[in-house]
């Protein structure tokens, strides 16, 4: 049996059992956290931070959460909107004038947040190193034409989401998104989540482990459609080795390169489930949270090749909203239950070849604690 540490209120024992089962089957190291009414009721971790299973996963272990980072980036935009600094219904060009080029003058901020802006791909970068050039990437996005009429269709903005929102934040505040997040969200909450990781934190990082039978050269494949065909994509291929590199940690790629653990992910996102506050800290008004669960688009996502419901910044699943990351991390918030559940791990699963239900098992276990 894997030794699980942390705390778990008695009513949520099923979450601890789910983590134990996952560590006994697919996981190497992982953490799970549940917040209700902005307060922790589950904060558990266990397993190992390395493939050799020689370094224990500790309370302060961090790992790359990939696209789970998008939840943090979206929250930055909602905080600024709630403060009156950004209008979600305004054109992006109102804050970023160069963006109006190539037929994008009608792209709204909410289009970018809901993956309906028509800019799912980066046309310029061809190597991971190109992603570290913020001004180069954003200048390229400003010059691109949308692939569809903005607002009429959705296509998952895997990498572009972070640059688009991040540049709006930079134009409005004068700060990089990772810095704004650290100073205005993570700092006040005391959340150990980072978009751009400092060297002092390297010792705490559990490297991502590629799926079984894969190597560090493993990359995510484009999703296949119902007929088995894949969407053409010739952009940057991010490998596991890239995500584990020092250069990746130091960069700010706000769609995908956040580092944290389940506690920090759940703490930050519980602000939205709890009408704007967590742990006695208020970040935005109750009304400012509502766009997170208000549907903007429902239909077939052109990139994911699946039916999706997108809100202003998040995917919506029934009463809950949130998003997950390449390999398995996941966070979901339910504003009716005022609950947020987060799961973070280092062992990736190739979802094209194996169903990955680890995060969902944690979420369903958490719901059992509310009964």
Task: Please supply descriptive tags for the structure shown above.
7-stranded antiparallel sheet; 14 strands; globular; 371 residues; alpha+beta; 3-stranded antiparallel sheet; 28% helix; single chain; 18% strand
Describe this structure in words.
- The chain has 371 residues and is an alpha+beta fold.
- 28% of the residues lie in helices and 18% in strands.
- The strands form 4 sheets. The chain has a 7-stranded antiparallel sheet with strand order 1-3-2-14-13-12-11, with helices on both faces. A 3-stranded antiparallel sheet has the order 4-6-5. It has a two-stranded antiparallel sheet with strand order 7-8.
- Helix 1 runs antiparallel to helix 11 and helix 2 runs parallel beside helix 5.
- The mean pLDDT is 95.
Tell me the radius of gyration.
19 Å
| Number of distinct beta strands | 14
Multimer state? single chain
Low-confidence stretches: none
Shape, principal axes of CA atoms: globular
Which secondary-structure class do the elements indicate? Answer: alpha+beta
**Helix-strand string:** EHEEEHHHHHEHHEHEEHEEEEEEH
Query: Which band does the percent of strand residues land in?
Result: 15-25%
Cross-sheet strand order for the largest sheet: 1-3-2-14-13-12-11
Helix share bin: 25-40%
**Average pLDDT taken over every residue:** 95
């Amino acid at each position: 049996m894997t030794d699980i540490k942390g705390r778990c209120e008695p009513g949520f024992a099923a979450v601890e059992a789910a983590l134990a089962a996952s560590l006994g089957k697919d996981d190497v190291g992982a953490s799970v956290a549940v917040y209700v009414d902005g307060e922790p009721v589950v904060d558990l971790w266990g397993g190992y931070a390395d493939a050799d299973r020689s370094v224990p996963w500790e309370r302060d272990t961090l790992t790359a959460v990939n696209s789970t980072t998008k939840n943090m980036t979206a929250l930055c935009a909602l905080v600024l909107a709630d403060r009156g600094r950004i209008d979600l219904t305004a054109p992006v060009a109102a804050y970023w004038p160069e963006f109006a080029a190539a037929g994008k003058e009608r792209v709204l901020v909410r289009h970018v947040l809901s993956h309906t802006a028509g800019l799912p791909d980066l046309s310029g970068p061809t190597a991971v190193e190109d992603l570290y050039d913020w001004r180069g990437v954003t200048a390229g996005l400003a010059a691109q034409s949308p692939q569809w009429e903005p607002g009429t269709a959705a296509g998952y903005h895997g990498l572009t989401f972070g640059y688009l929102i991040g540049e709006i934040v930079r134009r409005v505040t004068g700060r990089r998104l990772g810095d704004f997040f650290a100073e205005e969200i993570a700092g006040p909450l005391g959340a150990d989540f980072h978009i751009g990781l400092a060297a002092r934190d390297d010792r705490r990082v559990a490297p991502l482990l590629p799926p079984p039978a894969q190597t560090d050269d493993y990359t995510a494949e484009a999703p296949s459609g119902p007929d088995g065909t894949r969407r053409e994509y010739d952009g940057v291929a991010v490998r596991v080795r890239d995500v584990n590199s020092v250069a990746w940690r130091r960069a700010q790629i706000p769609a995908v390169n956040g580092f944290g653990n389940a506690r920090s992910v759940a703490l930050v996102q519980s602000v939205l489930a709890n009408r704007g506050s967590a742990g006695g800290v208020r970040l935005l008004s109750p009304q400012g949270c509502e766009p997170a669960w208000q549907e903007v688009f429902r239909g077939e996502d052109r990139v994911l090749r699946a039916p999706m419901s997108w809100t202003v910044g998040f995917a919506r699943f029934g009463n809950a909203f949130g998003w997950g990351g390449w390999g398995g991390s996941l966070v979901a918030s339910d504003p009716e239950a005022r609950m947020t559940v987060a799961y973070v791990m280092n062992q990736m699963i190739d979802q094209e070849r194996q169903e990955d239900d680890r995060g969902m098992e944690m979420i369903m276990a958490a719901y059992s604690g509310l009964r």
